[in-house]
Hints:
The protein contains nine helices and 23 strands. It has helices at 7-21, 114-139, 143-162, 168-190, 198-219, 225-246, 251-272, 277-285, 291-303, and strands at 35-39, 51-56, 58-71, 73-74, 78-80, 86-91, 98-99, 104-108, 305-307, 312-317, 324-325, 332-335, 339-346, 358-363, 371-378, 388-395, 407-424, 429-431, 441-448, 451-462, 466-471, 478-480, 493-495. Strands 3, 4, 13, 14, 15, 16, 17, 18, 19, 20 and 21 form an eleven-stranded antiparallel β-sheet that branches. Strand 14 and strand 15 (371-378) form a beta hairpin. The longest helix is centred in the N-terminal third of the chain and has 26 residues, at 114-139. The model is unreliable at 1-49 (pLDDT under 50).
Amino acid sequence: MLSTATPQSRALLSAIAAAALLGSSACLPTLPGAVPVSVVDPAPARTATNTIRIGKAVRGDLSGIVTFTAQLRAKGEMAIVPRVTARVDRILVDAGARVRAGDTLAELKAGPKAEVLAQAQANQKASQARVNALESARSAGDAATVERRVQDARAALDQAQAALQPDAQAVSAADAALTAARNRLSQIQNDPARANDRPALDTARNDVQRAEQALSAARTPTGTQAAVEQARRELQDAEEARLLVRLSTTAFDLDQARALLEVANAQVKLASAAATPEEIRAAETSVEQTYAQAEIARARVRDATLIAPINGVVTEIKASVGTVASPNAAILTLIPPEMQVVVQADENLLPQLQVGQSANLSVESFPKDAFTGTIKGIAPVLDPRTRSVAVAIEVADPQGKLRPGMFAQLGVQTGQRQAALLVPKDAVLKVGAIDPSAPPVNIVYTVTESRVHRQVVNLGVTDGKNVEIVQGLAEGIDLVLNPRTDFLEGELISST
């Protein structure tokens, strides 16, 4: 802690400080006019590290560089997800591999396309049903039986359709019962002799409630649309059976239905089988009727081959050969080859930053390599806590040396300043404002009559060594070039 020396002790303390600093020349001024001085403090004799350097702000030209430290990251991540559920047959890349758009990443064991297989199975089921109906009609062709079946099915359909509407008589009876219950309750409530008869009132109210529930139940249809559809299908089956009995069911009809069933079985087998190049070639050379089958085979091969959609680097492989992949999970992930960094720039730097500015980068992993970047975006809003704004910088890495997670030192070129008021960067301290809710401020310590005074300043550009003062400091005023955070306002210092 620094304190002002009393007149009685000034000479003694100055002698002690001078004796401690005698012969020390480790701290050299960076600007003209800097002289070494020491803080007068009733502490033991100070070493050379306590030497305070005084200098002046000077005018000069400055090439502005804004420096940041930030972590490299990928510009995004792309999950490679299969379009079908199938077994992983081959994975053709490894983690870390660089791929180009169009490269094959993995191959699945091409299986049936779901909608194609479903259609084939539906055809098979319909064909089997027709064969069964013909065989049944031939063996049991009783006209009276099938007629009775049709009548029963039609009656069941009528009943199901009627159940969709409420029973008018039941609704009317329930409505009348509700009216009677309400009248009984009203009579008790209006009768002075019974108005306070709690049991009678409770009974009447319960009767009204039960009557309301009964009316609601009477108005609710008992049937469902699903029951109607089921009854309609049963009627259609019965009518078809009656038609088959009325027609002359010949052996030719049954043989034809069985042939169609064999075709349907073959289609199911085709849809379920894995597509092969030979199958595709055979389909392509077949007649016009098999053109659709060739398209189905091509689609299955396309769905079973995973292609890189972009140039990138494989970051992770999440499946292995033999496992079953599905559209619900990624097989592997890619990141684009371009890197980026996002830095938080103080709001006072915003006038110096703009989209398109270039930046120089260096990383510890490749100390001899220089990388370049370009500002691609500046966030439109500030973080209210830090009073900073996010700046996105895209980094060029043609040789693929950079990796997400590396820390990079960045210097953004912000242009030239001529005849700017300059002080060494070390002469400026960033401290908390007096108001805790306000952002931090930049200060320098000026020197007047051997006393230091805190002065808030606004900064401009910097080249990493010197910084421009745009407000808060006049040219020619003495200031401390190496201030300490424990300076007191008005503290007395003296030259050594």
